[in-house]
Amino acid sequence: MAMFFEISSGMIRGLGTVVVFVAFVGLTLWVFNGKRSPEFAEARLLPFADEPQPDDTDTKEPAATRSTRP
């Protein structure tokens, strides 16, 4: 005897829910893994990467400069 399964829209939705739940749990475990902490610490600073870094080696310039534009 051969068994045939009838796939209904409810079963497809249920399987979709299971897939999304497994992906959520996997992503949560990946994010909160302690091994990834240094990578995420570096990534937290990426928005500030374009800002110029202060240069302490050149002390000849005055600390505060004023613009001469009106």
Question: Helices, strands, pairings?
Answer:
Layout (H helix, E strand, L loop, with lengths): L8 H23 L5 H8 L26
What does this structure look like?
The chain has 70 residues and is mainly α. The chain has a domain at 14-46. Helices cover 44% and strands 0% of the residues. The longest helix is centred in the N-terminal third of the chain and has 23 residues, at 9-31.
**Classification by helices and strands:** mainly alpha
* N/C terminus separation: 92 Å
Mean pLDDT: 81
Give the low-pLDDT segments.
none
| Helix and strand element order | HH
Computed Rg: 28 Å
Number of H/I helices: 2
Global outline: elongated
Describe the sheet with the most strands: none
Bin the strand percentage: under 5%
Question: Count the strands?
Answer: 0
Helix proportion: 40-55%
Question: Quick summary of this structure?
Answer:
This protein is mainly alpha-helical and 70 residues long. The chain has helices spanning 9-31, 37-44.
List the keywords.
70 residues, mainly alpha, 0% strand, elongated, 2 helices
